[in-house]
Prior knowledge:
Blueprint: H1 2-22, E1 35-42, H2 49-53, H3 68-76, H4 81-102, H5 106-129, H6 132-136, H7 145-161, E2 168-174, H8 182-185, E3 196-204, E4 210-218, H9 221-229, H10 244-259, E5 271-276, E6 283-290, E7 303-310, E8 323-327, E9 330-334, H11 341-347, H12 358-369, E10 374-383, H13 389-393, E11 396-405, E12 409-420, E13 423-435, E14 443-461, E15 464-483, E16 502-513, E17 517-531, E18 536-553, H14 555-563, H15 568-574, E19 578-590, E20 600-610, H16 614-621, E21 629-630, E22 633-645, E23 651-663, E24 730-743, E25 746-758, E26 781-791, E27 796-806, E28 829-835
Parallel strand pairs: 1-3, 4-6, 7-9, 7-11, 19-21
Antiparallel strand pairs: 2-3, 5-6, 8-9, 10-11, 12-13, 13-14, 14-15, 15-16, 16-17, 17-18, 18-19, 19-20, 20-22, 22-23, 23-24, 24-25, 25-26, 26-27, 27-28
Helix pairs in contact: 4-5, 14-15
Amino acid sequence: MIHKTGRYALPALAGFLLLAAGCSPLRLLGPKQQLLSKVQLEGVKQADAERIQALYRQKPNSRFPLPKLAIYQLGRGFYNPDRLQRKLDDTRALFDQRILDARPDSSQVGKLLTKRERRTRRLQLALDKGNAIMRLGEPPVIYDSALTRQTAEQIAIFLKSKGFFRSHMRYTDTLADRRFSLGRLLGGPDSLHRRRVTVTYTVTENAPFHYSQLDYDIADTAVARRVLASQPATLLHVGDQYDEEVIGQERARIEALLKDDGYFDFRQQYITLEADTSYAPTTVRLRTMVASPATELAHPRYTIRRVRFITDAGTVRFGQKRDTIVQDSTYFLAFRHRISTRLLNRKLAIHAGDYYNLTNTQTTQRQISQLDVFRFTTVNYVRVRPRTAEDSLRHELDAVVSASPAKRYQETVEFGGTYVANLPGPFGNLRLKARNPFGGAEVLELGLRAGFEGQYELASNDDEQQLKSQLTTQLGANINLVLPQFLVPWRNSGFLTRYNPRTRISIGYNFVSRPEYTRTNLEGTFDYIWQRSAFHQYVFTPVDLSLVNTPYLDQAFFNELVSRFPNRQAAEFTFNRQFVPSLSFTSLYNSNDFNQTRDARYFRVFAEVGGITRPLYQDLLNKDGNGIRVTDFYRLNTDYRRYHKLGPKSFFVYRLNGGIVQPLRPSNSVIPYDKYFFAGGSTSVRAWKPRRLGPGTFTSYVLDTDGVTPKRDESGNLIRNYNIEQPGELLLEGSVEYRFPLFDFINGAVFTDFGNVWALQPDDQRPGAQFNFNRFYQEFAVGSGFGLRFDFTFLILRLDVATKVYDPTAPGSKWAIRNAGLFKSQDQTAFNLGIGYPF
């Protein structure tokens, strides 16, 4: 038997080796071409290695997360350029004849031209860049020694710019190849595999230079006083390492400083920084020189003579002049004044008589744009021509603010669908927006929504239970009014104008009909919103009132609900008539953009206190014990996210999220159901269904018909229940994700999520649910997976597939990864479809 195996193994091995040799990507190379296999950087100890690697003019083919060259080679096997060229020529000839036959019908000719362009463009793309498989991969990177030499020169220049004036740079390109090859195995020539190039850049840094002295040489005394007075804010300090990037930033700082002090004509070209390294080893004496204008001894300082605000720029009325209203020395011009000039004047940071100020100009443009009643806003300055000799000594500007009105009414209609519990669920949203309805730049929004979503209903059938699918109904409406100022009972000054203050008044109604219950929620909020910066926003909600009612409640569902709540009183309160008054505060910092393309941070802090005034009216609202219930609570939530940009489309991101909710007074033990924390779902721990993770190590089982005894399967094992929401009072969760490009608009991700929720009080109904500081870190659920993101610029469609790795609620072994498989175990793997990134 051994003899037979050996007899067939040798030919099989030889065949495999021949196949491997024949499939070498080096066969894609032309004569005398070489494949760039590897690039190495050596000797970098103090400089930024990542910045140096970004200077490479050539990089090897990407191997992570997919071998791009192998994919390209696979597609190359199906690529026939001659056939594509013939098809392209035939297509052009066909459409040329059809266009000729369609004349003189211009409409038909136009349609044919469009079709010809679409089809020929697709064929030309395949001819130029290969078929779809080839475009998913990468063509071989042909080694170019000229690009290597240019890279070495750029690295040397970069090192000098960072203060390594005595650094040296050299490079080597070798054909050493440690890969397996059939030619090498047989002892013959290995010409094919001797075509892989490894490039090594070797840096000798030597000691960097530091500033030993900082001097200034400014002929204009007024400019000199202003620059020297700002020295505490300078970016250059004695002892710092020489850095041309920081020097450039210092030039920009001085320019902005002077532009904020009236120097309208000042430019960076007037600023020169001269470095002298001849005094002592590894030291630099840096002199900042500011030149005067060629025609004058001093830089002119401009004041604003007049401010004009055109509120309907772009509107044309032939034979009609704009009407002018003067408000605090500002001239407002419009064919018809629809917006309060007093409000608009409060948004201006530019005033007649002030010196020109770049920051105030940018603030004015930002604040007008944020009103959401204009399509675009520009601020321009016109020099005032002197009429007398005395006027020539005064340098004046006229400021012109031009704002083009946005569409007064706007509507948005959205339709979509979900597929849950084997049922399709259509939904639709209608949003109407009215701008400036009351003449104060307000924005009035009305929203209507309706949707159906499938869900599993726990139904009883004789002595066995089964999951049935039913549709739930959700209807809602809301109306929002946003005012571009704080609505307060006292006179509103312009002190907070630079923070873009807004007042938002909202009223919303939501109706939910499920097989287990019918629930309504009427809510009203009053918010103050302002921004500390372009990235940092505050929201203070002094009034948040919610009235909840449950007209119908299934008793079997209620008994199930009681089994997973801390106490019966809490379950009863959740589906009783309840009044929830609260106030809250939110601080949100987000330096990212909509498509998350920046190296950025996100930090959100939310604090809410409810029912402070409960003792004043609880007895009045609940006289007979069946009226409206009121509770009190406090809720804290923090969410931190970090986005590390590794490449143009590659990111390493992570998230830490935590929260706590508890009754405010010891005499109260109930919390509104909507205020609990939940874990699981497409934006949480993705291997678990939404709101189904936890709490702690508590395991939920399917109950028998008596609603108390856990049910067992044919083998006598308890049947786990994966379809019950699990509320908690403490939340701790996090995610780590690597995002990378795959093909064109398709991006990929690999991720790991962890987290759980816990109860803060002992819970006899849910053993293992209580938080314990000595063991909570052992109760984190862990899930991992991969995902696809379809980036359509205006919309990001996301598909994540996650499997459980560690399940703290599992009986027996907690390592659920042993059951990994798409369909191997119930609830082991979850598919999440969503819009936007998970965080």
